[in-house]
Amino acid sequence: GAGxxxxxxxxxxxxxLQCLTHTPALANFALRGEHKKYKTGGSFNAxxxxxxxxxxxxxxxxxxxxxxxxxxxxxxxxxxxxxxRQEDAHELARCLLxxxxxxxxxxxxxxxxxxxxRAETSFVWKVFGGRLRSQVNCKTCGRNSETFDPFLDLSLxxxxxxxxxxxxxxxxxxxxxxxxxxxxxxxKSANSKxxxxxxxxxFTVNQAPNVLALQLKRFAYVPFGRGKLNHFxxxxxxLDITPYTSDEGLTSRGKAVYDLYGVLVHAGNSSNSxxxxxxxxxxxxxxxxxxxxxxxxxxxKVVLKQQAxxxxxxxx
Length: 316
Known about the structure:
Elements: E1 3-4, H1 11-21, H2 24-31, H3 46-58, E2 64-65, H4 68-72, H5 74-77, H6 89-106, H7 123-128, E3 130-138, E4 144-151, E5 154-157, H8 164-171, E6 175-177, E7 183-185, E8 195-197, E9 199-207, E10 211-217, E11 219-222, E12 225-228, E13 238-240, E14 257-267, E15 275-281, E16 287-291, E17 294-298, H9 300-303, E18 308-315
Parallel strand pairs: 1-2, 5-10
Antiparallel strand pairs: 3-4, 3-9, 6-9, 7-8, 10-18, 11-12, 13-14, 14-15, 14-18, 15-16, 16-17
Helix pairs in contact: 1-6, 2-3, 3-6
Pfam families: UCH
Protein name: ubiquitinyl hydrolase 1
Organism: Ostreococcus lucimarinus (strain CCE9901)
């Protein structure tokens, strides 16, 4: 693929674009011209423009290209973005995936909501979409309550985690709701139909996505602004999240095992400053450092020693 010109503090965009460009399913989608089916007139079309960018980048190996259309339309992704200002790469990635998904849904007739169950058949959803299950168990009446939330990426707390697997373990640990955070149960009790009671709550991955995009939450609010957690968090080449899934999420495809293909890094102490770059596994199987217009081959050992901010895994 091509290197990307920095058009004025656009390293946050460039690093995300390189990770998306080397997402195999998205690369195939663009190279086959599938994105052209979604071309519409009028307002900015994130899905079409990403398809055009990916196809152009993969057909321009050894050269540098400028992601001009995406830089010009940053505010179409979020009104908080400002051209020429450093932005948060995770926020950009999330807004970009949301916009691409909504464009997939817009062309469906009759019209459907981007949050509807039917919308989960869109191309973007098939690649990045997953579902979380939240289960609450009332300790008074034994009633179980379940809710399901869709996601295109997952954010993991890493303040007390030494590894991604450790962060997943904390994310899915069973929380006891007691004291000030007691659970209001709507089940039967001796006194009333609704009662505050002790309960347990647990998150699990109910539907494992084909591409697992992870944010390691390094930025935290501190008294004088937004600080950063700079400690190393171990992440494997092969990630097995099977222990953190609910049984329903595994019935159709077996274990949820993933291979690493993208590592996005932030250098600096604030999300509004510093520099972003990434490491991606290209089609030949080689790992490359992609730092704006510079592309350099690196070893797996180098890749696995980074202070990762975003991680991209492809399911086997």
